[in-house]
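User: Fold both of these, please.

Assistant: Here is the first one.
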Amino acid sequence: MTDHTIEKHRLAAPALSGATKPQTVGPGTMLRVRDVVAKIGLSRSTIYNKLDPKSKAYDPLFPKPVKLSTRSVGWLQSEVDEWLARQANLRR
């Protein structure tokens, strides 16, 4: 392969960051679980534990997911941002 061919393939390769492109739906932007993980810095399992009333990590103020289809959910970015701001205010 020439340097030009390698450069062409590198530019055409998809990003492997793992985060998805947020979906705009109605009044807000929907974040998928990968995006929420990246935004708030908690693991996927911790996020779901915050939603489970039986978990020690349960947080009744944590944003609830919105069902998008039979097998997918998303979070409103505005609600995630509000939760993060509330957490930041707790440290003051």
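And the second sequence with its predicted structure:
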Amino acid sequence: MPRRTPLPPPPPPVGIRTWPDHDAMLADRAAVLDDLTRRALGTPRLLLFLLAVALLQLGWGCVGAGLVTMGPGFDPVSLVFLAVGGVTGIAVLVPTVFAVAFGVRRDSRMRELLCQWAALAHTPVRDAGFRKPVLSVAWLLVSSCSAPSASGSPSRPRPPPARAAPRTARSPTSWARARSCG
């Protein structure tokens, strides 16, 4: 099974840069920035994010479903459902959490490299192609839609439970009126 292509190396330090001219350095910079932005914002990355969100929701849903079956009474059937839901949920959650953690570590390394290569030169005309506005909007929409569902917030808030009217103390005049009427 082939391994993923490694991340590009960081730019060389100022003292040992060996580009023949400024245009060669800008060409190398553009190639690396294009590769890093494609890896960070590309469609496969977006689909992996959606898969991770779906797996986290599935695992947490299985654990939650197992816990809900416990209810107020304790019987062996609900214990079996708790065990099945808990084991299934943990079996999905644990590998997904590790995969997300490794992905976050790789993303932070990509971000560092992106910043280092971008700091080599400032070329607004050439850098405009790295913004990827369509993919950025897609990431924004997917993230804003998946964040509330992944955090467990309800789609529709429940109305607050009905409370009894608070008891108020009677004033002395209301006591007097109550005595005179009855």
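The two ends are 93 Å apart (CA to CA).
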